[in-house]
Amino acid sequence: MKQSPPPVTASTVNWTSSQPPLLRFLHTCYADFLAEAAGAVADYIPELGKANPAHFGISLATLDGHVYEVGDTRVPFTIQSMSKPFVFALALDTLGAERVESVIGVEPSGDPFNSIRLNADNHPFNAMVNAGAIACSGLLHADKGDGAFDFIRQALGRFAGRALGVDEAVYASESATGDRNRAIGYLLRTNSVITDNVPAVLDVYFRQCAILVTARDTAVMAATLANRGINPLTEEQVVTPYAIARTLSVMTSSGMYDYAGEWIYRVGIPAKSGVGGGILAALPARLGLGSYSPKLDKHGNSVRGIKVCEALSSHYDLHMLNRSDDARHSIIADYNIGKNPSRRVRRPQEQEILAKHFQEVRVIELVGTLSLSNVDYVARRLGGGPRPEFVIFDLRRVTATTRAGARLVAEAFQELAELGVTVILSGIKRTSREWATISEWTNRLGNIRDFYLLDTAIEWAEDQIVYRYGGSIDFLETTELAEQPLLAGLNEQEIADLIPLCTVRTYQPNEQIIAAGSEATSLFFLRSGVVHVTLPDGIRLATLTAGMAFGEMGLLEPKRIADVVADMSATTYEVTIKDFERFREQHPSAGERIMRNLAEILADRLILANAKIDLLTSG
């Protein structure tokens, strides 16, 4: 009988139409500030005066690539001075910091954006005022010639994640009325800041300011700044983290011109405004905000845009100097192999060695960001215990690595190398961004090994301890039924009666022996080789070597719950469940002993599982 779908209730409708809290907050800002009538549309460039003063859009881009939009976020407008930080970053990357810093300062001017004044060295105060921005365009023109503007436009498109066009009418209007900028250009030429043809340089600058963007574009561009130069939508590294850090520094001190001090005091987010009505704000490692509303205050900043930024910062306490990260939360678990060994089932000789030397393998599972303070805390925590032979740092929950953290990691690893301690990294792929950041400082160290899976890393370290203390791990060794833990306590006659019921099977590497979901028809005793027991999703439950049994849960459950695959050539004794049950009936005392052994084996597994849970949930 076909079942009817569940009824649609008010709760169901509310759930499907619900909005994330951050989007609801942006809607509230839009509603609260839409009626704001203060300010005036810029008209010193006649074409800008044609903007619709009612337009208002807010967009916020997260570093995982999600973009929130409220209002007129797809209305195009010219980027104007918001182009300055991106062109400055581009110049730093293209020409090098030494070349750029030789002619452009980094100090706030305290003057309006179009001030015709240079610093004591007759250089622009910074790249956020017109003089500095024109100097930046001049540097790129000197390097790229006639291709300078296309080079800039394409770069800004990579910041936005799409190709950007130009408003030719605004460009023409700006060029026709740009005498103040021409005065700045010739002042720069007089002081050898610009060495090229001034009209050609100013043409690049005027076109650069006339590039068309939307509030959504500026949010993505700001998020790229906040994400160390990586566009969160395209994942392209647009410029280097070095250039981003310097650009954000100048935005912090000078991005809002003669309002910059008040801005950083009250809002605390690096930002840049443009007389076209846009404001972008980049909160490092958090988000990018873009807004558009053409009416400006006396400083040339969007009135509504300022209010949105102030509200966002105040409501969520986003001031960049008000951080509360606690390094003590960077370690989620810290243990040795006595508390949490690998999933490999060890033979008695190996177990004995590892039981004596369990403190020689230390495992520290990390979470969050590998920052300077977090790495320092981990290093001190490690030094507070006995010296291990091997220390495993599991990084699968690490979300980011700062350059300062990576450098301190390298220095800590160097000290461990001098003390004879081998470092093992797990949970990190060699193709990842975090690996690139760490390896920049650690690739010359010889005491580092890496395995993607934590269990593999622990197993390798255990093997080294076994070898170091005289043990051996012989995968080709052959064991007999009497050596099986599941059959411990059976006498010679009982073992002799069981042997005829067994069939010797041989498996090639990667050959499947048991499939999850299949009928449990046989019990296996591993005679030689190695097998892996894994869940269908690939999670490894155990690694078994010669002398171990598998498929024993078939004595309790009719269906297989895991896959068993030969890791290398393996041979087994296979006995059907029916034959094994008949053997237990014929030998009641042996059957009782086997079930007692099975209970002990399952209890040991449960103890290990509980120990792992305790490690992860302990304070």
UniProtKB/TrEMBL annotation:
Catalytic activity: L-glutamine + H2O = L-glutamate + NH4(+)
PROSITE patterns cross-referenced by the UniProt entry: CNMP_BINDING_3, STAS
Pfam families: cNMP_binding, Glutaminase, STAS
Enzyme Commission no: 3.5.1.2
Any one GO MF annotation of this record: glutaminase activity
UniProt keyword terms in alphabetical order: Acetylation, Hydrolase
Binding-site residues for substrate, renumbered to this chain: 81, 130, 174, 181, 205, 257, 275
Domain of life: Bacteria
Domain Cyclic nucleotide-binding: 486-601
Group of enzyme by EC: hydrolase
Domain STAS stretches: 351-461
PANTHER family referenced in this protein's UniProt entry, alphabetically: GLUTAMINASE (PTHR12544)
Assembly mode: Homotetramer.
Family membership: Belongs to the glutaminase family.
Xref: NCBIfam families: Gln_ase
Protein name (record): Glutaminase
Species annotation: Bradyrhizobium septentrionale
